[in-house]
From TrEMBL:
Source organism (scientific name): Fibrisoma montanum
Record key words, sorted: Signal
Domain of life assignment: Bacteria
InterPro entries: GH
Name of this chain's protein: Glycoside hydrolase family 5 domain-containing protein
Gene3D superfamilies recorded: Glycosidases
Keyword Signal belongs to the record: yes
Signal peptide: 1-18
Keyword hit for Signal: yes
Length: 365
């Protein structure tokens, strides 16, 4: 009898250890028709600006290099900090996390991260560096995970949303085959659910129509992975999910029918009127129903002018996201995508964006 009781106790303990309750979280993002809600309330409740509805929008910035590292010893040295002359991935994440409260104070509610980063040169044809959260078989590096958790935890604490991209073209080939891609999706989605994060919006891959090696990451099949994330649930909860396309591209019907929200990119779209047209065309795609439309990448600025892409998107009730990289002959203080990054609001371009966010959202501090 005593042996039986001990066996039962051991079973209960092992079962409890195998399936612990996820940590209690502070921030939950949800969608009601075409509005984003945080903790059960629409964002910027009741807010209008210049006659435009702001309530329910999600202003964001592309900060994809928050967990960047380079596993290629031949390219790693080129990301050295100007003061120390060495690259340090922990410093990068430390400084990212330290800057997040300032971004939030200006009204920024969301940041886009990517588990395989983005081009640390802004735009690049070749990508010899090796920056991937995932191993070749779809498992993941614990060092990357530790840095990711730090950012997700801080965002949760601040009431911010993370648009988390899983894959980036130029790095997706680090996974050996389609089975590894599927394994990677299952692994990270499961981890996010197990860790209890409710402030994450999934972007399967950045610009699915640009140079992906694996067919399942390309436009005709990307909806399969959207479905896969939607199907993975823990205690009745799942993650909201979509994907994005290259600049100026309208989402395809297979994605519109499956996604929880739609991601557009304004790269290459210099006329603000074209931004409005993109939103209108997206709403006309077969399968569209009321859902949020979000630009989470646009490298056009003109924040001091009455007409710019940010204002244009806002005028047709679409959220807008800033994409800033270090341009030719610019220094360390410029750009949020070019490694190494100064994550503070350290340049006129960054200041212009954040001042515009503050103006549109009405946030004061």
């Amino acid at each position: 009898m005593q042996l039986l009781l001990l066996t039962l106790v051991s079973f209960i303990v092992l079962t409890s250890e195998a399936a612990p309750e996820p940590p209690r979280r502070r921030t939950t993002v949800s969608i009601v028709k075409d509005q984003f809600y945080i903790n059960g309330q629409p964002t910027f409740r009741g807010r209008t600006w210049n006659g435009y509805r702001i309530e329910g929008l999600l202003p964001n910035s592309r900060m994809v290099q928050g967990i960047f590292d380079d596993q290629n010893p031949e390219t790693r040295a080129q990301w050295a900090y100007p003061d120390t002359k060495v690259w340090n991935p922990d410093r990068n994440t430390d400084e990212f996390v330290a800057a997040m409260p300032t971004w939030k104070q200006h009204g920024l509610l969301a940041i886009t991260l990517n588990l395989q980063g983005g081009s640390p040169q802004g735009y690049s044809k070749e990508q010899p560096w090796h920056n991937s959260f995932f191993n070749a078989d779809g498992s993941y590096h614990p060092y990357y995970m530790r840095r990711l958790v730090r950012i997700l935890d801080k965002a949760d604490e601040l009431g911010m949303v993370v648009i988390l991209g899983y894959f980036y073209f130029g790095q997706d080939e680090r996974l050996k085959d389609e089975a590894a891609v599927i394994n990677a999706v299952d692994n990270i989605t499961g981890e996010l659910l197990e860790k209890g994060y409710q402030n994450v919006l999934v972007e399967i891959n950045n610009e699915c129509n640009i140079r992906y090696d694996h067919a399942i990451l390309q436009p005709d099949r990307i909806h399969e992975l959207i479905r896969r994330v939607k199907a993975k649930k823990l205690r009745g909860r799942r993650l909201l999910v979509s994907t994005s396309y290259g600049g100026g591209t309208i989402p395809k019907e297979n994605v519109v029918r499956e996604a929880d929200f739609l991601l557009l990119h304004g790269n290459g779209v210099s006329d603000p009127n074209k931004i409005k047209e993109m939103v209108q065309q997206t709403r006309a795609v077969a399968g569209y129903r009321p859902m949020p439309i979000v630009f989470n990448e646009d490298d056009h600025f003109d924040f001091d002018k009455p007409a710019n892409n940010f204002v244009a998107a806002t005028s047709v009730y679409a959220s807008w996201g800033f994409f800033d990289y270090r341009m030719k002959d610019e220094g360390f203080d410029e750009g949020y995508q070019s490694i190494p990054v100064n994550w503070q609001i350290s340049s006129p371009r960054k200041k212009g964006f954040f001042e515009k966010v503050k103006e549109i959202t009405g946030v004061s501090f």
